[in-house]
Amino acid sequence: MRKSMSGRKGVEGIIAVVILLMITVAVAGVSFTWITKMQKSMQDDITKQQEAMTKKASASLVIDSAWSTAAAAPMHIFIRNNGQYTFTSSEIDNMQVFYNGVPHGTLSTIFDDATVANPCIGNALAPGKSCEAVDDAAGTIDWVGGSGWEFKIELIEAGTEARASKECRMSKDNQLAC
């Protein structure tokens, strides 16, 4: 009987080593999986941040001109994309319109582009391209303030933080030019 007990002790030691090795491999596998997932998540976050920064850096708008031919005539604004980013139709439609620093709504709620050949509303704006926005006489902003009247139009696209502004002045004959 003694011989079989001493032989059994040797087997128990081997089984213990095998179990310890299995536990070590399992812990290493779990650790590897956890570290890999964490690294992937961090890489995805960094990629999203880089894309957002690139979008902001390459987005740029300018108001080329703005005018109205009479006190009750529609206000026209020509907007040009002078950056490298293509603004989606939703970004253009939801662009905030400021009048003398006061927000008055979005481009699509203030301007009605149904009468122009190259409308801004409902269309994307590619780099180097322009579009026209027209506020009809029944618009939400009273653009007319009399002879010598001055104001500032500013457009801000929230996602890219692209801004465009124009100083305007009403002439003595009620012609608005910016």
Radius of gyration: 33 Å
**Number of distinct helices:** 3
In terms of structural class, how would the helical and strand content be classed?
A: alpha+beta
List the strand order in the largest sheet: 4-3-6-7-8-1-2-5
How many individual β-strands? 8
Q: Distance between termini? A: 109 Å
Assembly status:
single chain
Mean pLDDT, all residues: 78
Summarize the structure.
The chain is an alpha+beta fold and 178 residues long. 37% of the residues lie in helices and 28% in strands.
SSE diagram, text form:
Blueprint: H1 2-58, E1 61-68, E2 75-81, H2 89-93, E3 96-99, E4 102-106, H3 107-110, E5 130-135, E6 150-157, E7 162-170, E8 176-177
Antiparallel strand pairs: 1-2, 1-8, 2-5, 3-4, 3-6, 6-7, 7-8
